[in-house]
Amino acid sequence: MGRGNSLVDDLSSFVNNPLHSDLEIVCEDGVLYGHRVILAARSDVLDPLLSNGMEESFKNQIKFPEIKESVMKIILRYLYTGSVIESDLSIDIVFNIFQAADFFQLDNLKDHILEFYRKTCKERNNAPELLSKAVQHITPVADNAVIDFLVDSISKISLNNIESGQLSFQALQCLLSRTFDKKNGVFCTNEYSVLRFAILSAAGEVAQNTSILEKKIPAWEEIKDEIKRGFDLKKYEDMSDILDIRVPIANKLSPLIDFIDLRRIDGLILADIIEPLDLIKKDHLYKIYRSYARREYFSPFRGISCSRENIKWEKNGCSQNLIISPDGYTVYHEGRKGYQSIRTNLLMDEGFYELHIKIEKLVNEGGDVGFGVCGEGLDYLNWAGCQKNGWVLSTNATALHNEHRTPIQMPPFRRVNVEVIVHLDMENKTCAFTIDGKSYPPIAEWKDFPPRLYFAASLSSGSQLKILT
């Protein structure tokens, strides 16, 4: 096809073409050719640089010593044609391309690269490797959309499913630092497994063989039943075979400990498995034990297994007297009397989940509201706590299940605008509550949860609840 029929084809022929070139672009490892008028017209960064009276505006050379030639060539192609050849976006340099696009303020190119990351992670499930490559070029605390996306992607899979070597130690530090204080974010790994992964990663940095430590800090699936009946301490007491590597592992692990919330780990695990390793400073552990003594409750996960926005009231999971708002987050009991029940849409079988809910309306006299969980087959025309497949905490501070009532040591919270969080741990089969910011331990009497549960609520006439996202 001759010239004049395709602007893209015509301009692409001039990418890094010395013909008619009036500008040399000096990169970290090579030189490319450009055309001043095209670059000035296409970039808000290059235009003033080439015309502001500085050295670049009257010399035929412009320097970018921190950008590699292969990356700059892709930037040039985009500036000339507005397009990118997909095969040019290799995993080894794609993050550098994103950084260069950010430097040149090419937002559309940044969006294109983010889409490349989304597609690659979906097809190859390789977010850990991509983050490991990306953090080689950026500090863990730097603001970056690609890093945010990759951290979010990894958070949604369990660290237990990441093979050794997939996630570098630097990438792990980035992941933990960015998720540590992220309230209510999705994070699918319990904190003990996070600590175990961190210890083994630190050991892998200083020792070739980590099999010895793997036996001393078993996977969560191996010990979760032992917690209930007590550990066989003989398996964990002998530490003579790690004496030579204990100090270097502890030094390597030290910066990660600041991003691991030990309060979320069962006290027996810390005392009988973690503390004998002598990898964490004693005074740090003592602070955690004092927290246990105060009976402070922290969920075993730093995040949840499902985004809060995905949890809504189920229209097919309630009585006809309950009205659900179009967005699915608000429910109102319009009936004249009696209790009615409702469940949410999400069936939960693994991980940790939270329901954030607010009481928006209450009748002036009588009638409680209840929050909790239910199994399949709930009778929505009755109070959930009176049923064998319903577990709810009422606003008068009473836990109810199958008509069994247990007073809970907390003040009643029957009032408008109170905010309640239901914490459901499907690994330990426990349910706990936070009332207006104060957290309470799991309800000990609820021990017979089925394998799969929904969040549930029971409403008195005239009451209204809203799920908070």
Short account of what is shown:
This protein has 18 helices and 17 strands.
List keywords for this structure.
18 helices; 469 residues; Potassium Channel Kv1.1, Chain A; seven-stranded antiparallel beta sheet; 3 domains; Jelly Rolls
Structural class, by secondary structure, is alpha+beta
Rg over CA atoms, rounded to whole Å, is 29 Å
The figure for the number of domains is 3
Q: Give the number of DSSP strands.
A: 17
Helical segment count: 18
What is the fold-level CATH name, i.e. the topology of the largest domain?
Jelly Rolls
CATH domain class name of the largest domain: Mainly Beta
Return the average pLDDT rounded to an integer: 90
Largest sheet: 7 strands, antiparallel
Secondary structure elements and their pairing?
Blueprint: H1 7-12, E1 23-26, E2 31-34, H2 36-42, H3 46-51, H4 55-58, E3 61-63, H5 69-81, H6 94-103, H7 107-124, H8 127-134, H9 145-155, H10 169-179, H11 191-206, H12 211-216, H13 220-223, H14 226-229, H15 234-237, H16 243-257, H17 267-274, H18 282-293, E4 313-318, E5 322-324, E6 330-333, E7 340-344, E8 352-361, E9 370-374, E10 390-394, E11 398-401, E12 404-407, E13 419-425, E14 430-435, E15 438-440, E16 454-459, E17 464-467
Parallel strand pairs: 1-3
Antiparallel strand pairs: 1-2, 4-7, 5-6, 6-17, 7-16, 8-13, 8-17, 9-10, 9-16, 10-11, 11-12, 13-14, 14-15
Protein name: 2715_t:CDS:1
Organism: Acaulospora colombiana
